[in-house]
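Why do we bother with a discrete structure alphabet at all? Because it lets us treat a fold like text: something you can write down, compare, and reason about line by line. To make this less abstract, here is a complete entry for Chromosomal replication initiator protein DnaA domain-containing protein. Read it the way you would read a sentence in a foreign language you are learning: slowly, and without expecting to understand everything at once.
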Amino acid sequence: MSPLTSSARQLPLDLGHEPSHGEDDFLVGEGNALAYGRITAWPDWSDATTVLLGPAASGKSHLARIFADRSQAIVTGPETLARFAGGTGGENLIIEDVDRAGFDEHDLFHVLNQAMRGQRALLLTARTEPQDWPFKTADVLSRVRRGPIFRLESSDDIELSHIFVKLFGDRQIKVDPKVIGYLVARMERSQQEAAILVDLMDRLALAKGSAITRIIAAEALALRQEAETPGQLQNLDPTS
């Protein structure tokens, strides 16, 4: 029986662990060094607007948290952006996932203008390139492009290994480095995939009452290959 179609048993769901987002916890590698350097250069920014681009779990939110700690920036979204757009500036802002639907273009235009006039610093994060953002107002995108854009790229072997160590550490799990090496050599090369695999291995190990071993890692890789989407990994029979 396929582990993805069996409903006889479910893996434990998210236990609510909290990842650490301190500056000292950020893993700097070749793919994110420029973005990290930009964030930690605050307040010595020549441009008030910065854009971070990268796939899910690539470190954008972690860098945004570091920026918030350094600059006392406020995180805003579609529901609260109008309050800042209608003000006189002053508060530094973080707008995450700006490429998702729901942001009022008029409000976004105003906070971008405020940043251009030096009234606030503005950090935007997105998964897609600006030309693919769902905005019809050309002035919004032209102002976005005036600031520097930093891309968080895929990780190399060493960086991926460090990412696994951090992700397991966030869950207070110790794993043999040989298991991590086994994963890095066989997985899709992205931080998002590492996060998915760590969550899956944690749940597999809990269901089996086992430590995270090479056998657990192999099973997680096999299940991940079979799953068409991460959501399919929520209902599995770990013993089938």
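What the structure line is telling us, in plain words: The chain has two domains: 32-151, 157-234. The mean pLDDT is 86.
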